[in-house]
Amino acid sequence: MNLFIEYIIAALLLLGAVFTLMGAIGLAVLPDFFTRLHGPTKATTVGVGAMALASMIWFANQPVGTGFVEILIMVFLLLTAPPSANMMAKAAMHMEVPKVGNTRGDSWQQ
Amino acid sequence: MIAIVLKISIALVVIAALLNVYRLIVGPHAPDRVLAIDTLAINAIALIILLGITLNTRMYLEAALLIAVMGFVSTVAMAKYLKRGSVIE
Amino acid sequence: MLDRLSFPQPWLSLLLFSIWQLLADGVGGGSVIVGLILAWGIPQLTQSFWPDRPAVFKAWRLPGYLLLVLWDIVIASFEVAWLIISPRRPEPMFISYPLQLDCPQAIAILASTISLTPGTVTADISDDHKILLIHALDTRTAEEVIEAIHNRYEKPLMEMFQ
Questions:
Q1: In whole angstroms, what is the distance from residue A21 CA to residue A32 CA?
Q2: CA-to-CA distance for B69 and B63, rounded, in angstroms?
């Protein structure tokens, strides 16, 4: 395998792992539910996407040969992250989960 | 080089999973726990992809896809249960 | 009988067929047959759930929009990651976003885009489909966010669906 491709794979893997960790740190340290929602929906999704891309490039340079399952995983995660975040936000608003003190604006009740 | 990077990546993702478990235990509200489980499922996908590269096999990727599907469905079901009190009306 | 054999949603059928080929990891005799059966059967079974098709849909504008959104998702992740590790406390805000789109598919695309891009998550939509409730992670004023979303995402979508 070409050294350049190896560097790309390594960079994508590290980027993915760091983003996954960022999402988890956000989930652990941010002050209330609505702010915690931001970490996993963006950082973690992109992190796993980067790792899936790395996996595709890796197997393309191996005797095993590459496939399309990684594309499906990436597309599926990107498509499902917004609806699940939306559903959880709705549930949290319905349960009136407390918001952090400096939140401005109102969540409405329907 | 890839072997070392893989080990570092697996370590980082495992730390991420532990942080999610921390949020799962601490809560403090039900939606926080649902969010933690959702993120745990995504971290499991990341671990499976990394394991596949380590062992040089594509066999586990199908499992990753299944976990993605199941994670989404269970998250939506739990969120709906919290909102409405029932999943299928 | 013959009208039963039609494809009421050609794009959905095409999508299902290609996803099945991807799942089967390559085009082969068996996967083509099963793919065709699924591409015919699933739209027939779910026909009553689908909303009316939009009157105008300029599909050639879609790839450009998707590229823009993908790029913004990567940038968004860096911004959120930076915000998480910086010691400053975020200033969250709930924003009511007045929608100018009226087609439900377009609103769904816009809401998903908002959830995936910088520091904003779509939380709810009003019953008359006129207002989106957005939670922003860190912003100074509501106008900033509304302006940015309108110029960057809603305008291309309005051109696509009108």
A1: 19
A2: 10
Interface touch B29/A92, C-beta < 8 Å? yes
Chain A residues close to B79, C-beta within 8 Å: 84, 87-88, 90-91
Say yes or no: C145 and C121 in one domain: yes
Of C92, C95, C123, the CB nearest to A35: C92
Residue C54 domain flag: no
Q: How many domains does chain C have?
A: 2
A31 touches chain C (CB under 8 A): yes
Note down the domain range covering B67: 23-84
Asked if A78 is an interface residue toward chain B (Cβ–Cβ < 8 A), one would say no
User: Which of C80, C85, C110 should one mutate to test binding to chain A, selecting the residue with the greatest count of A CBs within 10 A?
Assistant: C80
* Residue C101, domain extent: 59-161
* B35 occurs within a structural domain: yes
**pLDDT tens sequence across C41-93:** 888 887 777 777 766 777 777 888 888 888 888 887 888 788 878 777 778 88
CATH number at residue C150: 3.30.70
Contacts of residue C51, Cβ cutoff 8 Å, sequence gap at least 6: C104, C105
The answer to whether residue C69 sits within a structural domain is: yes
User: How many structural domains comprise chain B?
Assistant: 1
For A2-44, what is each residue's pLDDT tens digit? 888 889 999 999 999 998 998 888 888 888 888 888 888 888 8
- Asked whether residue B5 is assigned to any structural domain, the reply reads no
Query: 3-state DSSP helix/strand/coil percent for chain B, to nearest 5?
Result: 85, 0, 15
C-beta of residue B49 within 8 angstroms of C-beta of residue A61: no
Q: Sheet holding C120-125: strands in order across? A: C93-98, C131-136, C120-125
Binary contact (C121, A34; C-beta < 8 A): yes
C133 at interface of A, judged by CB pairs closer than 8 A: yes
